[in-house]
Specification:
The chain has helices spanning about 1-10, 20-25, 45-60, 75-85, 125, 130-140, 200-210, 215-230, 255-260, 285-290, 295-305, 315-325, 330-345, 350-360, 365-380, 385-400, 405-415, 425-435, 440-450, 460-470, 475-485, 495-505, 510-525, 530-545, 545-555; strands spanning about 25-30, 60-65, 70, 95-100, 100-105, 110, 130, 145-150, 165, 180-185, 240. The chain is α/β, with parallel strands linked by helices and about 550 residues long. Strands 1, 2, 3, 4, 8, 10 and 11 form a seven-stranded mixed β-sheet that branches. A hairpin with a 2-residue loop joins strand 5 (about 100-105) and strand 6 (about 110).
Length: about 550
Amino acid sequence: MRRLLLLVVAVCLTAIAAHAQQAEHRVALVIGNAGYQHVERLGNPGNDARLIADTLKKSGFTLVGGGAQLDLDKAGFDRLVQEFGKQIQGADVALFYYAGHGMQVDNTNWLVPVDANPTRQQDLDFQMVNAELVLKQMDGANTRLNILILDACRNNPFANLGTRGVAGGLAQMKAPDGTMISFATQPGNVAVDGTGADGPYAAALAEAIRKPGLDIFHLFNQVGLSVKQATQGNQQPWVSSSPIDGEFYFSRTEAAADDAAIPAIEPVAAKPSATQMPPEPTVQATRDLAEKGQAAAQIDLGINYAKGIGVQKDYATALQWFQKAADQGDAHAQFYVGLMHERGYSVPHSYATALIWYRKSAEQNFPAAQIAMARFNARGLGVPRDRAQQVMWLRRAAEQDNALAEFILGNLYRLGIGVPKEPATAAQWYQRAVAKDYGPAEARLGLMYMHGFGVQKDYAQSMQLLHRAADKTNALAQNGLGELYVHGAGVPRDYAQALHWFRLAADQGNTFAAFNLGMLYADGHGVPRDPREATKWLQQSAGAGNEMAIAQLGKMGVPVAR
């Protein structure tokens, strides 16, 4: 156990940063129809939908209905698609997954509710769901990226409708702007259900989603290769896509997470302390000043409208007030105008327009805009990808003592991304952010002191920094504290304390803490030995792709739950 836990500590230095996924608003509707009333029942769709729903939830998606929606009749199907359309308004990413019977008639794809029983082609509008309606819900939601996944390319269950337009498999669909459409197999072809509990397409998709660092194009290519291999070439998934600005990762590497963080609409400049702060002005008082041309009031009024504070939430009006201040050359307002265009709030989503306004603000040395410029250059949003430009803009923000910029620079030097890999330099940047009480930097520097990576090994210093970050609910630090207590590194060995910190981190989804917690239950350290509880936590870790958890479950003779 000691050897395995030490491995976990080392792996933690390159752990996935879950905060990036949380920064994006992701919404998914997952449907699995298997229990058909009038045609052949299917074996896999229920399992497939549960697998995909659980996998998406772990990668930061909010699921309509809270989980997989199973065996929907026409009324239930319509209601959930409509609810999906409401919940994805203004989201970053919308995803629809359907497993079940599907069919094409006259090049239109129909998804089949469990109570459907059409006897003529005219019945389709009333008894089935047109896949184009789902696309329309997505296309009108002002999202950055839409993903439509149809795992429904099976034999046509209603081939006797009496029309020549009925064909096997599904028809090709045109992807609207910013949309990726994935089929379980090529247009007009029929997919196989496979011999296991999960279909080959769903199994390959879930496995690819769990792999960090795969952008959406590489991910679906990987799915296609896996399914082709699993079916001996009998099934080849197919994708239709329109141009997609930037990149999307279901599961990011840590570096990608730093690049991706997009701020919310909040006042960026620090306000005085509560004892120094005058009473908040009323919305009307702010409006009066704004109408007189005061840029600060225009920004505050824009924030009121953007967040619905004292007024009806209205992004269009918010943008108007931000624009008035930006046109006066206010860097803060210019940043917000860029943010509104990047997120597509009340205007078409546009990286190019956002970049213009971010640059105006950044050139006035506004740190938040400089970090945005770094992110755009790192990810190639509106400009060619350029790590040197990323580092330059981060340095300019860090020179103004911006903790986030200092932290990201520390990550780049620690990992050797765009700069030489220099742990000592990374530690220096982290230390600057630590001086500002920045929790993520405290966690990273604490781990560096634990391992003597870039600094001299110092368990006392590690414990102090990790405690500071853990008290801010940082899961990486909580897991690190558990490691120190397990090994008695700088403190007496205390399995009860280790259990406490591992559980806090595991409850936040930290895969390494889940593994460590499982091992404590497996070995009976600090708790009675409990194979069932051990399996639960190891399964959670393995489900997120932790190879050590997968290996441990194999030693225990327990299959990995998918």
